[in-house]
Amino acid sequence: MQLAIEEARLGQQTPGGAEVGAVLVKDGAVRCAGFNESEMRHDPTAHAEMVVIRRLCAEEQTSSLEGLTLYCTLQPCGMCTMACLWAGISRIVYGAGREDVHSVYFESRHNNTFDFIRDAFRSDLEIEGEVLAERCATFYARPEEPVPEKDDPAHGRTQPPG
Ligand SMILES: [Zn+2]
Questions:
Q1: Catalytic residue chosen out of the listed positions 6, 19, 49, 60
Q2: Given 62, 70, 81, 157, which residue has the most CB atoms within 10 angstroms?
Q3: What is the pLDDT of residue 159?
């Protein structure tokens, strides 16, 4: 998780990057590390988790990440959780959870990552949260804080989101 935090810091400092870090680990060895590249790549799917999954799968010419653990500074959103399921990742460990940060980082009011995993056909995906949560949460807006303009999905829209 320390390395994921370093990646989040790197993302924060990189133009077009964002402060979510992710690391893929197998048998105690780091296989891939990255941060959110959505703005940099003009790709709303380039969340940190998606970046490391795509990068490692491309490097290894595989679509299966069975046996790997994904560390992420923020609880994975629905898209990234589904990607972990499809990639066959064995374990997810995240830092700050939904309760620790503003709802702007998530897409659904009620469904959370645990619901997706509980309802999945796979029963071998483990998930653990709140690891170094306070440290990780310092990167994000808190529930009671205003949404930073760059993280506001309504920013730049002429109509309020429907
Ligand atoms: Zn995501």
A1: 49
A2: 70
A3: 43
